Amino acid sequence: MNVLMVDLVNQYKRIEQEINKAVLNVFNHGRFINGPEVSQFAENLAQYLNVKHVVPVANGTEAILIALMGLGIQPGDEVIVPAFTYIATVEVIAFLRAVPVLVDVDMATFNINVGQIEEAISERTKAVIPVHLYGQAANMQQILEIARQHNLGVIEDNAQSLGAEYTFSDGHRQKTGTMGDIGTTSFFPTKNLGGYGDGGAIFTDSDELYKKMRMIANHGQNKKYFHKYVGLNSRLDTVQAAILNVKLKYLDEYISKRQQAAKMYDERLADIEQIILPSVQQDRTHVFHQYTITLKTNNRDELKQYLADKGIPTQIYYPLPIHWQEAYKQIVKLPVSLDNSEFLSEHVLSLPMHTELTEEHIDFVSETIKSFFRNK
Ligand SMILES: *Cc1c(COP(=O)(O)O)cnc(C)c1O
Fold first, then answer.
1. Contact predicate 111/133, CB 8 Å
2. Given this model, what pLDDT does residue 376 score?
3. Ligand 1 centre and the CA of 148: distance in Å?
4. Can the peptide bond before residue 318 be classed as cis, meaning omega within 30 degrees of 0?
């Protein structure tokens, strides 16, 4: 059986006509930069998220960079981030010569350990970037409370959780990326809403931040050749916007397919005592960008190889916590212990997860994992 980690081709085949039509339409109108599809997509996404403003940008990394610039982060300013995340979250802080201050994550959610945020705050702390890792929200209620008390900006890195929801204690619900001052996302092809190339977006309810970030993404100008801010060129391609307009209509269906696949994994893997399955918090929905198991035993790499030998691809997100990365060792500030991040980097394994998985695929993956532990 041929199991793929992601399956973008078969997902495309289901909507081939619609995508082809949208793309050919761009080729025919010829407005390849900032064509009408781009502003249409910004509107569609704003409506989907129930957020006031969307700034489409070139990728998810620049989305975070522009968000930091929007908040006015200066060299030497401190920004609190989890040590267990994709490098992009931290790299843009370093790029601005600000200081990434690392805190740990919770074992159950893989998300920022809220208790450590206050410990990590200093006089120079300006912002915190919770990352909604693997498809589930961080504990936003407490993060927002701490941020308010200490006057910190909040940027939600929502590259992995577009469409996920979080419920506050008063019962009101919001989509991830819309609760902090700024939210960012990526349309990298393998993300839950993936284009057919690079893309990203920034969300905010603030008119002021919107105006500033939109200008920063466009060379710091809002009138051509008059530059108010130091900016950059970060645009969502018109062809990508055309594709994303089509795919956004299917995002909820894609999410539900991922949730169904996760449920099937849950049922089949439940009685393997050597592994911990992803846990969904009561106040959150999980959109399963990844289905990530945590091994209690020390043979993760052996399991990965065993599955690979049987034709089952898996991935390790992420094999090193940020403070063990060569480029970051010297740059980051480490006010708290990062035991969970270190442990997880050596014990997590992400299983095949996409919209085209069948019950047969999941049976095969699950049976193979079981057979690995049976033979131990
Ligand atoms: C993918 C990703 C990014 C960066 O997105 P790109 O579009 O690849 O630049 C940032 N943060 C997280 C958590 C991601 O998963």
1. yes
2. 76
3. 26
4. yes
- Rounded to an integer, the average pLDDT of 325-350 is 97
In this prediction, residue 207 has a pLDDT band, given cuts at 50, 70 and 90, of very high
Is the full-model pTM beyond 0.85? yes
Angle at 363 between CA 362 and CA 368, to 5 degrees: 100
The minimum-distance atom of ligand 1 relative to the CA of 200 is: 7
pLDDT at 61: 98
Pick the CATH number of 8-248 from 3.30.43.10, 3.40.640.10, 3.30.2290.10, 3.30.450.20: 3.40.640.10
Terminal CA-CA length for the chain: 24
**Tens digit of pLDDT for each residue in 39-55?**
999 999 999 999 999 99
Distance 84 CA to ligand 1 centre (A): 13
CB–CB of 137/111 below 8 Å? yes
Task: Tell me what the pLDDT averaged over the chain comes to.
Answer: 97
Residue nearest to atom 7 of ligand 1 (CA): 60
Q: Look at domain 252-374 and name its CATH class.
A: alpha beta
Conformation bin of residue 145: beta by default, left when phi > 0, alpha when psi is -120 to 50? alpha
Query: How many CB atoms sit inside 10 A of residue 27's CB?
Result: 11
3-class DSSP assignment, residue 49: helix
